[in-house]
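Q: Sequence in, structure out?
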Amino acid sequence: MAAAMAGGKGKKKKWSKGKARDKVDNKVLFTKEQWERLNSEVPKMKLITVSGVVEKLKISGGLARRSLKLLAAEGKIRPVLLSRAQRIYTRNIGEEDE
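A: Exactly. Output:
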């Protein structure tokens, strides 16, 4: 009988707060160094996505989207897939059209 009554008197489970992610501090405007890196490094990447540019240059997603549109308009990169959710570009090798 004592064992049956002891079941409800155990310690309560302590819930963890969960793992906190580090807050990233991505820039919303280009510095001169970041602008030069965008124009030199991004056109050489094989797979160019918004998230890849955000990680590489530490800029915000909106700034990365606009800069990729600008590079595509200048002809430095070529769009592969332009959907609502994901934009994929590749480097522009020569002037070949598929």
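The first helix runs from residue 2 to 6.
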